[in-house]
Amino acid sequence: MGSVARVTESTPLITSPEPSVEGFVREYLRELNFTQGTVLERASTNDKYLALARTVRHYLMSRWMRTTNEHLRTQPKAVAYLSAEYLLGRQLDNALIAADLTEVASEALASLGIDLADLREAEVEPGLGNGGLGRLAACFVDSLATMSIPAIGYGIRYEYGIFRQNFVDGWQVEEPDHWLDNGSPWEFAHPEHEVTVSFGGRTETVTEQVGDDTVERTRWVPGWKVLGVPYNYMVPGYRNGCVNTLRLWSARATHAFDLEIFNYGDYAEAVRAQTFAENISKVLYPEDSTPQGKELRLQQQYFFVACSLRDFIDQLLPEGFDLHRLPERVCFQLNDTHPVIAVPELMRILVDEQGFAWDEAWEVTQGCFAYTCHTLLPEALEVWPVELLGRLLPRHLEIIYRINDEFLDEVRESSGDDELLVRRMSIIAEHPQRAVRMAHLATVAATKVNGVAELHSQLLRDKVLADFARLWPEKFTNVTNGVTPRRFVRLANPGLSGLITEAIGDGWVTDLDRLRDLEPMADDPEFRRRFREVKAANKERLAGFLERRDGIEIPADTMLDVMVKRLHEYKRQTLKILHVVTLYDRIVSGRLDPEDVVPRTVVFGAKAAPGYAMAKQIIGLINHVGSVVNAHPEVSRVLRVAFPANYDVTVAETLIPAADLSEQISLAGKEASGTGNMKFALNGALTVGTDDGANVEIRQLVGDDNFFLFGLTEPEAAAVAEAGYRPSAYYEENPVLRRALDLVARGEFSGGDRRVFEPIVSNLLGEDRFMVLADFQSYLDAQERVETAYRDPDAWSRAAVLNVARSGFFSSDRSMRDYLDRIWHAEPMEA
Ligand code: RUG
Question: How far apart are CA 405 and CA 137, in angstroms?
């Protein structure tokens, strides 16, 4: 514990260069020649990009070192964000704006005949997350740095991030994501800080003499070990002198293990052992909301939290730190259930290694953890079979059992031995197999439990974790998600950023509430005209991007209707595609004159988990409908469908600023929050949405007139389900719905083959768990209102400007303030 050298103010630091064009050219050529080992004339685009990334690093480096030293020296209370996913997006532009270096770099490169825009395109984004949860973690670390909060992000350096999606005949095909292949200039490996992580084996009881007393202690005798090597990434705050650290762990075989096997001359076995160990950080699990019980995934979870706790204690605390005071120094924020195994790990460290009494250790542990739940779907709450957890982490299972025993005693005491309640709340589930409920463990251990939007937090309290909320009402709180305005407005939408800054100054970039000052501009015709110009230019930019990247042509002058998010039945991409089918059907059957249709381009972006068959079917349906619609001479004049493959942060940054209409159409009570919904509103798209997740707050803030609400509310949906939902009744009663579903069933979009989309049709008619059919008519009605509104460009852009002006609440800086006030109680460092 506490192996940190004492840090004093006088620790010498190299100072980063002052930004100037000549200076930048010098630094750049030095990187190109000395580090990249090439000359300008022979340098590939990748060489030039790598040299640029390294040059930009120079300008942030002394801030990073200073921030790190200040944290070590002053030992403030820190936030340690534990997350299995970080969906970072490209780093170059973010680093450039943080260091206020974009113009200098662009000019310097131009003087060497290089276009900055070309080098941007060379960067491969690290896709170390599946979707909203991972992107949220990336927004949060950005905001923490921008607000000078002492914080460290901990996670896994997956060698392969989220798969690359390709379409073959309209069906999703997954390919590995070789994101590290061309070099990764933003990371710093620190093998000297490697951590040993143990697995397997057994536990034993040993007797120790402590003074005059003989005490019995449990000891873990592990079966095998791996090493965790940390890679540090800079997390630069926006022009505030603070650069925090994101520390991602990579698994390696232990040296001793290798050597022993080598000594026996078994090279193949040594390589096998190495592969086995390194598999732990090989791939990101591609599930989102539907985790499958994979042993490797549990290994990953334990691996990264064991490394992170060890690292925090050994590297960030001073020599001899009294761990009783750990809650004064850190809050470990558990991002979903993935890192929850950190709870028994801290108990193990305190009890087994540090000799704490159980109660003392539990008090410290409870003071150090907080838990964020991100779901309402029961299948997304992780459970680990006792057999697996006991085999992989035998000591941790014992600790979990003891935590559970003591917790259930408390439940019995407070409930008068209500055994049904005890069974419901137990950390151990008995059916269908004995398993550890990680959400229960997290809730029992955490000082606070939060949901990610008001409605979500309320449903956690009232439904998912209701028994716990009754026992500990004060434990439950809400922190509505947010998104970083730096990446998703300032960087992604330079046109709008310029317009806003011209109107109200640039303070909004770090104080997004200031967007309120734009409200009067909504009534200024000239401002609205310029706002429309920006939107039109963003559509042109998108059209160029899709043509270059995917060979997809979209008209740049139609209403841009966008649905981008993971493919999941609860998110209801099916509802959107049924709307497209309905428009197609009306035009083809002559019931709707194309002249009366507001021309629109519907853009989808979505990856399906590779093992999620229905999601992949839906992707196939969207692409097949798209092909037929786009090929139809009359229909395609007013309706186009585009589905660029491999939706990622980079695509989002071009797509969202161009959107007119944001599709947020999940069944109410199923989407925890959503964060895409916030990005669209901030970029001046109007939402067509249900009363779900953060849509509720968006609508409240932007106003009913500037939002297209439809669909059942959560209590209504619950009542329909309670009464026995019969989707076929909607089909029978609604001829428009019937025609749309019949077209799909008849094979209109599958070359006449009825079998292709039969699983979708029969699922909708038979079960329809997410009530697509129940909400269909209401959705069509909302789309009619959308069309009417869009016909009046002036009124539409007024509503769009109001969306921007009233969405400042959705900054992740505000989310951080809420976490600080309600959960973390940490303070910013002085600039
Ligand atoms: O599905 C949720 C989104 O509603 C939410 O906005 C996001 C961030 O809070 O997290 C998503 N999520 C949930 N991703 N994985 C899970 C599984 O628990």
Answer: 33
| pLDDT confidence tier of residue 258, bands split at 50, 70 and 90 | low
Class in CATH terms, 537-810:
alpha beta
Among residues 252, 437, 539, 566, the one annotated as catalytic is 566
Query: In the structure encoding, which two tokens stand for residue 127, read together?
Result: 């896709």
**Paired tokens of 10:** 């006088």
Domain residue limits, the chain: 1-74+100-123, 75-90+125-480+817-824, 537-810
The answer on pLDDT for 220 being more than 50 is yes
Using DSSP, state whether 425 is helix, strand or coil: helix
Closest CA to 277 of 295, 304, 252, 248: 252
Query: Of 164, 301, 308, 118, nearest to 231 (Cα)?
Result: 308
List b or e across 428-461, with b for residues whose CB sees 16 or more CB atoms inside 10 angstroms: bbeeeeebbbbbbbbbbbbbbbbbbbbbbbbbbb
Give CATH superfamily name and number for 75-90+125-480+817-824.
Glycogen Phosphorylase B; (3.40.50.2000)
CA atoms of 766 and 453, how far apart (whole Å): 32
Q: What is the pLDDT of residue 524?
A: 98
Phi, psi (rounded to 5 degrees) for 268: -60, -40
Ligand 1 centroid–CA 464 distance in Å is: 15
294 is catalytic: no
Q: Is the pLDDT of residue 87 over 90?
A: yes
Angle at 350 between CA 403 and CA 279, to 5 degrees: 85
- The verdict on the CB of residue 693 being under 6 Å from ligand 1 is yes
Percent of the chain with pLDDT over 90: 92
The vertex-577 CA angle with 576 and 583, nearest 5°, equals 95
Ligand 1 mutation target, pool 289, 670, 678, most atoms within 8 A of CB: 289
**Do 75-90+125-480+817-824 and 537-810 have matching folds?**
yes
What mean pLDDT is predicted for residues 606-634?
Answer: 97
Q: ipTM score of the complex?
A: 0.99
Q: Is the peptide bond before 432 cis (omega within 30 degrees of 0)?
A: yes
CA of 533 to the centre of ligand 1 (A): 34
Residue 176 alpha carbon to ligand 1 centre in Å: 23
Instruction: Looking at 369-493, list the stretches that DSSP marks H as alpha helix, in order from N- to C-terminal side.
Output: 386-392, 394-415, 419-425, 438-445, 454-459, 466-471, 485
Q: How far, in whole angstroms, is CA 783 from its chain's centroid?
A: 29
Half-sphere exposure of residue 62: CA atoms within 13 angstroms, side-chain side: 9
Select which of 484, 654, 675, 690 is catalytic. 675
Per-residue model confidence as pLDDT tens digits over 166-184: 999 999 999 999 999 999 9
At residue 190, what are phi and psi to the nearest 5 degrees?
-130, 70
Catalytic residue (one of 329, 374, 475, 530): 374
The whole-number pLDDT of residue 211 equals 86
For residue 830, the model assigns a pLDDT of: 81
Residue linked to tokens 């004339």: 41
Alpha carbon 34 to its chain's center: 37
Residue 463 a catalytic site member: no
Amino acid at 687: T
Ligand 1 site-directed mutation target among 374, 465, 481, 488, most atoms within 8 Å of CB:
374
- Rounded to the nearest integer, the mean pLDDT of the chain is 95
Q: Does residue 375 have its Cβ closer than 6 Å to ligand 1?
A: yes
679 is catalytic: yes
